[in-house]
Amino acid sequence: MTRSNKKTRLTGEQALKQAFESTDHTPLLDNLGVDLSDEYLCLALTHRSFANENGALPNNERLEFLGDAVLGLSIAAKLYELHPDRPESDISKMRASIVSRYGLADVAREINLGPHILLGKGEKLTDGGDKDSILADTTEALLGAIYRQYGFEIAREVILRLFAAKIDGASARNRTLDWKTTLQEALAVAKLPMAVYSDERTGPDHDLTFYVTATVGKTEVGYGQGPNKKSAEQQAARQACELVQSNPGAIKV
């Protein structure tokens, strides 16, 4: 009797189960502050690229649609309460900045969501887990999953906690301050060369810490650390801005 040496190809459901269970999602749930069933958590984390590569599995887009609605209402109601004297045009802009792709992606990075997202091979190769669009959509899907499992009040509590800093600092601007852009503008005014960012990382793939140094010419001007490269770069750029604006003469080129 001849034995086949061919490896058995995983079915879509088997591939999904294997991918989902390959990462410890406990840190993510701790950051969210609620437990989610494996069914809802897995669905919320399944990007369409993974679903399409594995036999058209269900993806997180329906939960994303639901989470968007719950998020929008929660933030709008809170801003309405906090700013009774502001016109609709102001609070509308505040809400738009908080629930924008950039605002959602910021929150996603704060809870280190990227390593948990189930992505297809193409998205993995292009660092899809750190793309603003994918991070934002998956955050909304998680909020939709929380709503489905626990109802509106619990979902609202989670949203107001995760977005508390953005709500407190809300303004009529359309997006949060980009410190890298601000630094670039400050360097141009001071007639200094552009900043160069170098990074190191430590820890397992699902719980990385990034350390970034910003250098202008021969001078280290800023340092930052965080759960992803972008947030660490923003910290380094913010620190560098303070130096450039207060003492540009200290920078040796």
TrEMBL record:
<protein>
    <recommendedName>
        <fullName>Ribonuclease 3</fullName>
        <ecNumber>3.1.26.3</ecNumber>
    </recommendedName>
</protein>
<dbReference type="InterPro" id="IPR000999">
    <property type="entry name" value="RNase_III_dom"/>
</dbReference>
<keyword id="KW-0378">Hydrolase</keyword>
<feature type="active site">
    <location>
        <position position="140"/>
    </location>
</feature>
<dbReference type="Pfam" id="PF00035">
    <property type="entry name" value="dsrm"/>
</dbReference>
<feature type="domain" description="DRBM">
    <location>
        <begin position="178"/>
        <end position="246"/>
    </location>
</feature>
<keyword id="KW-0819">tRNA processing</keyword>
<keyword id="KW-0507">mRNA processing</keyword>
<keyword id="KW-0694">RNA-binding</keyword>
<keyword id="KW-0540">Nuclease</keyword>
<dbReference type="InterPro" id="IPR011907">
    <property type="entry name" value="RNase_III"/>
</dbReference>
<dbReference type="InterPro" id="IPR014720">
    <property type="entry name" value="dsRBD_dom"/>
</dbReference>
<keyword id="KW-0479">Metal-binding</keyword>
<keyword id="KW-0255">Endonuclease</keyword>
<comment type="function">
    <text>Digests double-stranded RNA. Involved in the processing of primary rRNA transcript to yield the immediate precursors to the large and small rRNAs (23S and 16S). Processes some mRNAs, and tRNAs when they are encoded in the rRNA operon. Processes pre-crRNA and tracrRNA of type II CRISPR loci if present in the organism.</text>
</comment>
<feature type="active site">
    <location>
        <position position="68"/>
    </location>
</feature>
<keyword id="KW-0963">Cytoplasm</keyword>
<comment type="subunit">
    <text>Homodimer.</text>
</comment>
<dbReference type="GO" id="GO:0004525">
    <property type="term" value="F:ribonuclease III activity"/>
</dbReference>
<keyword id="KW-0699">rRNA-binding</keyword>
<feature type="binding site">
    <location>
        <position position="140"/>
    </location>
    <ligand>
        <name>Mg(2+)</name>
    </ligand>
</feature>
<dbReference type="InterPro" id="IPR036389">
    <property type="entry name" value="RNase_III_sf"/>
</dbReference>
<dbReference type="Pfam" id="PF14622">
    <property type="entry name" value="Ribonucleas_3_3"/>
</dbReference>
<comment type="similarity">
    <text>Belongs to the ribonuclease III family.</text>
</comment>
<feature type="binding site">
    <location>
        <position position="137"/>
    </location>
    <ligand>
        <name>Mg(2+)</name>
    </ligand>
</feature>
<feature type="binding site">
    <location>
        <position position="64"/>
    </location>
    <ligand>
        <name>Mg(2+)</name>
    </ligand>
</feature>
<keyword id="KW-0698">rRNA processing</keyword>
<keyword id="KW-0460">Magnesium</keyword>
<feature type="domain" description="RNase III">
    <location>
        <begin position="31"/>
        <end position="151"/>
    </location>
</feature>
